[in-house]
Amino acid sequence: MTDTLIKVDLDTSPYDNEMIHNRWHPDIPMACWVEPGDDFKIETFDWTGGQIKNDDDAADVRDVDLSQVHFLSGPIGVKGAEPGDLLVVDILDIGAFDHSLWGFNGFFSKQNGGGFLTEHYPLAQKSIWDFEGMFTKSRHIPGVRYAGLIHPGLIGCLPDQKMLDTWNSREKALFDTDPTRVPTLATLPDGGPSAHMGRLKGEARDKAAAEGARTVPPREHGGNCDIKDLSRGSKVYFPVYVDGAGLSMGDLHFSQGDGEITFCGAIEMAGWLHIKVSLIKDGMAKYGIKNPIFRPSPMAPKYDDFLIFEGISVDEGGKQHYLDVHIAYRQACLNAIEYLKKFGYSGAQAYSILGTAPVQGHISGVVDVPNACATLWLPTDIFEFDLMPGVDGPTKYLDGSVDMPLAPDL
Amino acid sequence: MTDTLIKVDLDTSPYDNEMIHNRWHPDIPMACWVEPGDDFKIETFDWTGGQIKNDDDAADVRDVDLSQVHFLSGPIGVKGAEPGDLLVVDILDIGAFDHSLWGFNGFFSKQNGGGFLTEHYPLAQKSIWDFEGMFTKSRHIPGVRYAGLIHPGLIGCLPDQKMLDTWNSREKALFDTDPTRVPTLATLPDGGPSAHMGRLKGEARDKAAAEGARTVPPREHGGNCDIKDLSRGSKVYFPVYVDGAGLSMGDLHFSQGDGEITFCGAIEMAGWLHIKVSLIKDGMAKYGIKNPIFRPSPMAPKYDDFLIFEGISVDEGGKQHYLDVHIAYRQACLNAIEYLKKFGYSGAQAYSILGTAPVQGHISGVVDVPNACATLWLPTDIFEFDLMPGVDGPTKYLDGSVDMPLAPDL
Amino acid sequence: MTDTLIKVDLDTSPYDNEMIHNRWHPDIPMACWVEPGDDFKIETFDWTGGQIKNDDDAADVRDVDLSQVHFLSGPIGVKGAEPGDLLVVDILDIGAFDHSLWGFNGFFSKQNGGGFLTEHYPLAQKSIWDFEGMFTKSRHIPGVRYAGLIHPGLIGCLPDQKMLDTWNSREKALFDTDPTRVPTLATLPDGGPSAHMGRLKGEARDKAAAEGARTVPPREHGGNCDIKDLSRGSKVYFPVYVDGAGLSMGDLHFSQGDGEITFCGAIEMAGWLHIKVSLIKDGMAKYGIKNPIFRPSPMAPKYDDFLIFEGISVDEGGKQHYLDVHIAYRQACLNAIEYLKKFGYSGAQAYSILGTAPVQGHISGVVDVPNACATLWLPTDIFEFDLMPGVDGPTKYLDGSVDMPLAPDL
Amino acid sequence: MTDTLIKVDLDTSPYDNEMIHNRWHPDIPMACWVEPGDDFKIETFDWTGGQIKNDDDAADVRDVDLSQVHFLSGPIGVKGAEPGDLLVVDILDIGAFDHSLWGFNGFFSKQNGGGFLTEHYPLAQKSIWDFEGMFTKSRHIPGVRYAGLIHPGLIGCLPDQKMLDTWNSREKALFDTDPTRVPTLATLPDGGPSAHMGRLKGEARDKAAAEGARTVPPREHGGNCDIKDLSRGSKVYFPVYVDGAGLSMGDLHFSQGDGEITFCGAIEMAGWLHIKVSLIKDGMAKYGIKNPIFRPSPMAPKYDDFLIFEGISVDEGGKQHYLDVHIAYRQACLNAIEYLKKFGYSGAQAYSILGTAPVQGHISGVVDVPNACATLWLPTDIFEFDLMPGVDGPTKYLDGSVDMPLAPDL
């Protein structure tokens, strides 16, 4: 029986659990300590800490309090880890709880974070996904079923003070270029009551909360990378910045597409990880490592027949941008959505498929001025019908009777 | 014996061949006509028309005349094709010529086009790649060998006048924002002697040359997409804009990484394609198609063990950018290069590997403000040595005695 | 929470559990009933019912009582199922128990069942395999680690009386050709106390036990097929012979090679399955089905780099056999074992690797008289060292200090 | 330009070409010599030397003279190769001739060699397969199209006299157990005019012909293994028995299923190989090698969605056999044929698909007395229609208007 070092109770608030935190700061005390070579289990809340329910009403997505995210389990101290080391993490397994075999996906309101296509889908919507063993399907999006490529959206080690200061200053600089923008350009430390600093209390807590970095973006330490292939069976090498490393993780995803374009997010779930840790002493210098590197799992869904959509960096208004992969990928996604609509999906359903299925987003061409070219790889085997083009045109597989719940802005 | 409809003679100038062109314009006459259902072969020059030689001097890369590129074979008229149709192209096979079993890769001087990492590698360099059956290796970059994922970097149909005007106006608008920039923001029609308008002559030629779009960027019709997976065995659906479709192709690549980051470019070669064409009448409306879509080949190198590098949208100077995938991918590439240098490669060699090997570039996270996250997937099986990190640190596999030729700016 | 319809207590005897049986007979009462469309969990003993222990002594393997095997969970009645239907089983997931994260592999003594290479390894030996999440490794066989391709070695529906009679008569006919052979040619009904007929009692039990077929061989209904690819995520179509179908299963394997050559067997374990059932009415006639057919899982370990060994149907003594694939595969296995010994493995360790790792056994040529050709595909990625041949010869990776426990015949 | 060391003229008889032979004997002189490290091309006849024509009449298959097969190109001498070495052969590429883009498949008459299912299909039939680039399809078998996994059915080194004597004596011993059997149990040396001993002439030729082993079966040196995965891109390690090794090859296949069950055979073709040779001195002892071993290509068709059929070792008459994989595989094949007939194929067409498509034949269980279990893996992506079972039963895709030519016995 493998030890579970951090447990969560989904019926209680994450704020009541001292082994949880939702900001990055070197002062957060280790929640527990392990030895190199140990393997153990860690439980996690879903990234919102239970704000989204398994129902047919998107109001909870609309009203989500994003100042709370992401609830992370940790930090885990690894004995002997020192700044400059690489912390090697074998992700041995990941799973949902037997009593919580579902996940959610959705789009935030443009007023509250939005998403990759927020100009096109500005209102809160959600879909619920049920897990049937290693597969998932949604009552809100018929016609698709996937095997999960389960992974932590967020995992990484504590920054030291210098790294933290770097993060805060560069993000503030960006934020200040357009401080009233909606959605915001960057999420800055707020120091408010939403900050959960683990078992840190009182003044120490307040100080750390005031400068603790939000967990939203990926950074040098990894963090919220939302890389679908950093899944069960992968081996990850993390930079270490503080004594003990301080590894934290959360934001489990049952399945996700490259880009996590729906922002809320993948198929989000609570659950557990089984991991093993070890060290490469002085590994950052030895291998010239700045950001984490990893070897993907030998085990992943074999969805390798694709229909591929191209996009270029000309925006929806016809304006030419210079080698902008972000815009090119958006066009590829929009092209795929238009295609899927011909088979009967609503745009929102198609958007959700791109956010939740193991679609690939490739940077296909990035030097042919002025157009970047991005490709969206849609796996055809996840559909219960034939998705390929034919001389007779598409068959409308869906009758439109089922759609995703939508909650208008108040 | 399959008919070869367009032949090229590598010992003569592409300008002497009326079945070649290097600009996009609806007035370019069809080089030949085929029926839907036909299969046939098409020969092509390399994209520069033979400017780069199989030697150890990068001066030809430095001095390349980019106003000439890309030399395309076509346009091929398909009987019955009308605007709004989809032209279905089965790429049945692609190969190099028996008398030309090599290709080139290089970086242009920053003064003449540059490349993805031109700030880091501003001078012209090149590597020559020999083909041994389905494999390639380079005398300038030891320790790697790949099976080719051969593909046309450039393939697409003629634009109509309206589409052409759209291209020209939007690219001019971008160019005008910084007309003296080096490298240029966009390559505009020039009407000069470099324009090869097929068999169009005299005034008609001059008029078309004056407004004929350069072939550099990918656009709605596909064109210079440089998608490595659009390879032999794939099936591509192209939008048709003019009667007869007018399919042209060229810029063959023996192998390339996602992004074609070296710009010059992949492993560039002359060669031939064997293709088959058919039509989906009114397919653009039936399937909501704006850009080409395709189904990849059932046949591709099985390099599926990877070491994956992350990059985020903080640039080399530490400046924070907003969800900029271009910058994030650049960081992932730079991270991979630093890693490879630990095994003895020069930076230029490592850069070339990323440009020529079947590396993948994924848009991993694109919503977690303010950082985009991109990943560079380096296939480990192409290396003759073990690339994985270990507790003992890297073994220097290469002694630095071999490097890529470099030609300083004059 | 998914319902568990059949539970097992590993601390008690399978004979005390009325939802278990170890013989095939149409009179065995259904242990439970489900509706088409239901999904549910089923727990199982290991195939020996706990006779083999997690220790370093092979005496239990030597002394195993094979008259007891296999302990199956079921039969499960499916409402509406009738003879001639196909019972569709989606294997949604399979796992070990949290309190029993290990499995065993071994060779029986030639005096008690033997194995594929019993002439070469005639004595009882065993290895214990620990599960670390989705991976397994053994303290008795260093240098290898696999991701599990978990599957039920045994699954199928109850025979009707006619099918049962066919089985018994044809196997008896074979047995009678050499009734004293060791190992035996066939395992016949014995009617003794070892027969567990589920909840059948008294005379009815004795009658059924007397003619109930042993579970050892695979037969028309599937049964003990030991097909490694019939794993979690696969979809199986079983012939139905009796009203309610009567689906039973057991003999879970964490990992196995094609052929299950060690006989005892794969990496054997207790555990649970999560399955879903549905029906294709009259499916046997519709599709001409005699034996089960299945579609493998989209999820399986990506061990696809192999070193492949050939074998032909000339036996160890040099005698020529006519297109005998059994002998050809034995030679391929022996060839692989000789190869592995050069790296330091004992023959027994190498034999165990072939029995437990996801090796493939292909029938490569079966018409070129007089030699069949079989190939053994050894996945190289499961080894912690480089297995490929080189000019310098093999490096002895193992020092021979660790071997598998052996229990001499008494 | 790669040198072609052995050329063939398909318009002339193989007997006129001194670089061809069709028997194995150490006295056959080397056709040419190469150095370790050389790469070069070798052309080959089809295995029958042109006896089968691209037409719609199976008389040529019925009347084939099998005493002539297989016409091999070689032997190629490798300088420095000595008995006990391993000859390493990189198969860099394989192709058909531009002027001969087709192949044949067929069943021999039971009176003349038969095939795996000769009791069920005792008469000569054939199908012709056209090559379209890397794909093939047949006018005699609609509804399927494959990418080729091109390979030499036959490749290996010359035996020494001792090895040759062993072959001849053991095969004669088998033959003598039933010398009048039809089809024959073994093909023995005949010394007749059909024997082509390369450039050996006169008495020396007659002596070698009298004892030269037929090329039909695979043996210790490899030879006629008909292993579909020994394809372009693979690396093979051959035992060396004579000075110079004496590598010969032929019997090219565009595509084949495991077992090559149709015997005539795969999709048989003339063509060329591009190979590279090197040596591992004393490699046989270093690695314990008796039969060739190989590493498969990184490039193979990605047909990895399968419908899998089981077979057990109970024969068509209901008789039980002991762990007989040959019979089990025959049952799996017959089961697949019955299934395919439900979609409209004739039995012969289905049989041909199993012989020519990249089907896999696995030895799934070989220890569960008395039944072996073999599985036939049918790739579903080669079919133009949906092959999976469904509640509505199969749709008859083919109307039976097209079938394979049959030539009754005379």
What would you say this structure looks like, in words?
Chains A, B, C, D: Pfam families: FmdA_AmdA. Chains A, B, C, D: Residues 188-226 are annotated as: Disordered. Chains A, B, C, D: Residues 200-209, 217-226 have a biased composition (Basic and acidic residues). Four copies of one chain form a homotetramer. With 410 residues, chain A is α+β, with helices and mostly antiparallel strands. Chain A folds into two domains: 4-295, Sandwich (Jelly Rolls); 306-404, Roll (Endonuclease I-creI). Chain A contains six helices and 25 strands. Chain A has helices spanning 59-62, 161-175, 202-211, 283-287, 325-341, 347-356, and strands at 4-6, 20-21, 23-24, 32-34, 39-44, 72-78, 86-95, 102-107, 124-132, 135-138, 141-147, 151-157, 213-214, 218-219, 222-223, 235-239, 245-253, 264-268, 271-280, 293-295, 299-301, 306-312, 360-365, 373-379, 406-407. In chain A, the strands form five sheets. In chain A, strands 2, 4, 6, 12, 14, 15 and 17 form a seven-stranded mixed β-sheet that branches. Chain A has a six-stranded mixed β-sheet with strand order 1-5-19-7-16-20, with no helix packed on it. In chain A, a hairpin with a 7-residue loop joins strand 23 (360-365) and strand 24. In chain A, helix 5 crosses helix 6. The longest helix of chain A is centred in the last third of the chain and has 17 residues, at 325-341. The radius of gyration of chain A is 21 Å and the shape is globular. Chain A starts with a strand and ends with a strand. The model of chain A has no long low-confidence stretch (mean pLDDT 97). Chains C and D meet through helix 2, strand 14, helix 4, strand 20 and strand 22 of C and helix 2, strand 14, helix 4, strand 20 and strand 22 of D. Strand 22 (306-312) of chain C pairs antiparallel with strand 20 (293-295) of chain D.
